[in-house]
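In response to reviewer comment 3 from the previous cycle, which asked for concrete evidence that the modeling workflow produces usable outputs, we include below a single protein chain processed end to end. The sequence was submitted unchanged, and the resulting structure tokens are shown without manual editing.
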Amino acid sequence: MLDHMKKIKVAIIDYGAGNMLSVKRAVEACDAIGICTADPVIIEKADRIILPGVGAFSSAMNALNNLKLVDSIQKIASNGKPLLGICLGMQLLFDESEEFGLTTGLKILPGRIVKIPISRKNGKLLKIPHIGWSRLESYPDASWKNTILEDNNIGDEFYFVHSFIAEASNRSHVLAYTQYEDVIINSVVRSDNVTGCQFHPEKSGTLGIKILNQFVSHG
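The workflow returned the following structure tokens.
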């Protein structure tokens, strides 16, 4: 019982736009307690918070607003508690999205969500959505030490599925990027206690579990 009480509690925000169970299973594989919930009290009391998500930005923001979760998520971001956005959840952290018209986001990270360009420089069409395994790369001045990527290596591959990408206003917030043909994707972003992954760590095998384990263990 004592060991159970000492385990890190991870609130997985359940707003109807995420694959809750696979995230919960991945968190539990890191020896933490995963709690799928839309209760702001439980979310704010948890040790770590994950905002997952698949689908449309506007629908997700509507759901968060209807559940009165926007203030809670913004409070978590500002009070220093570790917060991780996954896929659409990462995109929601930004100011706004151009998907289906302009929609205001959580405004935790400065920047905008835009559609992946539909053509390459050589004129050939780029397959959208971007689906499959792609490498993480790092800018020379971006250190992965003391981040969720600390146990991973440049070149590690993760599973992506998305049609929109984040244009971060501050390049220092970009921890890792991915090159999809001629398109640069900001695949991991970070500012203080807030981190986002464009890919799905919970669907990326042992390398993804390493990321979630870092998040659970150190934030």
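The helical segments are 2-6, 20-29, 40-45, 57-66, 70-78, 88-92, 205-218. We consider this sufficient to address the reviewer's concern, and the full set will be provided in the supplementary archive.
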